[in-house]
Design a protein that fits this description.
The protein has 334 residues and is of the alpha/beta class. It folds into two domains: 230 residues, Rossmann fold; 75 residues. It has a seven-stranded parallel beta sheet with strand order 3-2-1-4-5-7-10, with helices on both faces. α3 packs parallel to α5 and α8 crosses α10. The longest helix is centred in the N-terminal third of the chain and has 23 residues. The chain is globular and about 60 Å long. It starts with a strand and ends with a helix.
C-alpha cells in the first residue's frame, strides 16, 4: 500500500487532509509537535488500524535535521505532504523569528527526503496566495504565473513579513529542486483565506485558525454594531484545499506545478448574509441587513482553471461553507 508522510498533522488544513488520505486508501503517518496532539488524532479515528494511521513527533520544524528521522520508514514513503509551518507569536526580529524558520522549515524537509527517503516521488507543499499577490499593484488577472514581488528589505517591515515568508519559502523549494536535482518533483498549493468546518478534536473557540475567527466573531455578535473590513477578498473551503493536496499526489501531471486554489470572491457582508440565510436563529447577533459591502466593483480577475483541469476540483459554494462552518462552531459552544 502507498505510504504518505503528512507534516503538521494537527493543523487546520492537515486535519482535513488526514481524512481524505484515509478515504483514498493511503497509509498515513503525520508529524505533530507533541505526543498529546498525536494521540488526539489517533483517538479521533478509533476504527482506523494503527498500520493505516500513526504519528511521529517533530517538536521544531525549523531546527537543522528536524525531519531526518521522520522521513525514514519501513515500508518507505512514496509521497510527502508538507503543511507544517513554524509556530510562534513573538516577531521581534523578522529574519530570525519568521523568515529563516519559514525558509529553513521548507528546505529542511526537502534535504531530509533527498538524503534519507530516496523512494519519495513527489512532495506537495502548502504555500499561499501570499506568494502570488502583489498588494501594491494588483494585476488585471491573478494566476499561478504571478509572484509576490516583495524584496528582502521590504520583508523587514512587520506588516510584510508573513507574505514575504511564504514567498521566500516557496521560492526556496523551487530553487532546491532545480539546483539539487533530487529523485522527487514538487507541487505547491496556493490558497487565499481558508474557511470551513473546524476540527472539533483539535480546536476550541479560542484556538481556531485565523481565517475562521471572523466567522466566530459574527456568530458571537462581535460585529453586531458594524462589519470589520474584509481585507483579502478571495476565499476557499478547507475541504477543497485538502483534496487539492491529495489530488496533487494522485495526478501525475501535477508534478512541477503551482496551483492557485480559490473558489472566488467574498466579503464579510457576504458571510453575514449567508449566516442569516442558513442559521436564521442567529439574526440577533448579526450586523444590520443594510450594512455596506466593501467588495470593490472593479476588483482584479482570477484564473483558477489549472486547479479544475489538472486536479479536478469542483469548488464548494460560499453558502455551503458558511453553513457547515457555523454548525461546527456551534458544536464547540459558539
Amino acid at each position: 500500500m502507498v505510504k504518505v508522510l503528512l507534516t503538521g498533522g494537527s493543523g487546520f488544513i492537515a486535519a482535513h487532509i488526514v481524512d481524505i488520505l484515509l478515504q483514498h486508501g493511503f497509509d498515513t503517518v503525520v508529524t505533530v509537535r507533541s505526543e498529546e496532539k498525536g494521540k488526539r488524532i489517533l483517538d479521533a479515528h478509533p476504527d482506523t488500524p494503527k498500520e493505516k494511521l500513526s504519528y511521529v513527533v517533530v517538536e521544531d520544524v525549523a531546527k537543522d535535521g528536524a525531519f531526518d528521522e521522520a522521513v525514514k520508514s519501513n515500508p518507505p514513503f512514496t509521497y510527502v505532504l508538507h503543511t507544517a509551518s513554524p509556530f510562534h507569536f513573538n516577531v521581534a526580529d523578522p529574519r530570525k523569528d519568521f523568515l529563516d524558520p519559514a525558509i529553513n522549515g521548507t528546505t529542511g524537509i526537502l534535504k531530509a527526503i533527498k538524503a534519507y527517503a530516496p523512494t519519495v516521488k513527489r512532495v506537495v507543499i502548502t504555500s499561499s496566495f501570499a506568494a502570488i499577490v502583489n498588494p501594491k499593484k494588483h494585476p488585471k488577472l491573478y494566476s499561478e504565473k504571478n509572484w509576490n514581488p516583495v524584496t528582502w528589505d521590504e520583508a523587514m517591515d512587520h506588516s510584510n513579513v508573513y507574505r514575504a515568508s511564504k514567498t521566500f519559502a516557496e521560492k526556496a523549494a523551487w530553487d532546491f529542486v532545480e539546483n539539487e536535482k533530487p529523485n522527487f518533483d514538487i507541487a505547491t498549493i496556493n490558497p487565499p483565506l481558508v474557511l470551513g468546518p473546524i476540527v472539533h478534536y483539535l480546536n476550541s473557540l479560542e484556538a481556531i485558525n485565523t481565517s475562521n475567527q471572523r466567522m466566530r466573531d459574527l456568530v458571537q455578535g462581535k460585529m453586531k454594531d458594524g462589519l470589520t473590513p474584509t481585507g483579502t477578498f478571495l476565499w476557499v473551503d478547507v475541504r477543497d484545499v485538502a483534496l487539492a493536496h491529495v489530488r496533487a499526489i494522485e495526478v501525475s501531471e501535477a508534478g512541477g506545478q503551482r496551483f492557485f486554489v480559490t473558489a472566488g470572491f467574498y466579503s464579510n457582508k457576504a458571510l453575514a448574509d449567508n449566516i442569516r440565510e442558513t442559521h436564521p436563529d442567529l439574526e440577533s447577533k448579526l450586523p444590520p441587513k443594510d450594512s455596506p459591502d466593501d467588495l470593490p466593483s472593479d476588483i482584479y480577475g482570477i484564473d483558477n482553471s489549472r486547479s479544475k483541469e489538472v486536479l479536478g476540483l469542483k469548488y464548494r459554494s460560499l453558502k455551503e461553507t458558511v453553513s457547515d462552518t457555523v454548525t461546527s462552531l456551534q458544536a464547540v459552544g459558539a
